[in-house]
Amino acid sequence: MIEVRGLTKRYGARVAVDDVTFTVEPGRVTGFLGPNGAGKSTVMRMILGLAAPSAGHARIEGRPYRSFDRPLCRVGALLDAGAVPGGRAAYHHLASIAASNDLPRSRVDEVLVRAGLRDVARRRVGGFSLGMKQRLGIAAALLGEPGVLLFDEPVNGLDPDGVRWIRTLMRDLAAEGRTVFVAGHLMSEMALTADHVIVLGRGRVIVDTGMAEFIRTGSRGDVLVRSPHGAELARVLTGHGATVTAEPDGALAVADLAFARIGELAAAHGLVVHELGARQGSLEEAYLRIIGDETDHRAVGAIGEGAGA
Length: 309
Description:
six-stranded mixed sheet; 10 helices; 25% strand; alpha/beta; elongated; 2 domains; 33% helix; four-stranded antiparallel sheet; Rossmann fold; Alpha-Beta Plaits
């Protein structure tokens, strides 16, 4: 597993990561979320020994990453898909990495096939699209068949087929008992992939929980009601503690009242209901609600709004 304890990183007076503590367990995909500048990439770099913490520590299998003799056989990582020499062929790039960790050339062929790059293996990386570079970076991470994998924004640049591929790959790796830690911003995809979620805000951990629990507690699930007696039904439901909001198409979004109770009240007052359906909250809704003021970058509603225009 990955263990992070009291991890802190300062750049002069600025605190980029502030006393971060969490555990990433094997056998599941852990999503790492947070707004731009929250410190996610910095945390990943410190886990991999690419940046020195100002305080605290990170351990993989109980040891610092730099203590591994053949690190690629213990940890695979993709932090920057573009960090590949453009003049080198994909095959030779992977072969050089394999040689540095005493891995057989046969592994190069295997990961090229798994990443869908066999037909372009002899092409120079400089001609690759971002999606192809992502696949190559993931192939490199898989070379040593490691038990721990870290991916930073792995779906960037991937087409729909590629997104589905990386989603399935991460789920399969976790099912094999590996530790999979993935940072991303694409909420719809993260909701389909991750079992657990850790959220950073201004360098601090603000959420560390299961995905289903996070969505359930962080989002506002409601019930959609359609009735030819909408206004009257809204008054009845509000009188019994519900929060009722009119949708643009005339339906009612009802919160703070149980699904069954809504139907019972409508029947008791002789109000016809054409539709009654519970709506599940989304990861995006839960994330935006929880993150609140934890972001330094917030757009305004219209050009010139808030800028003195």
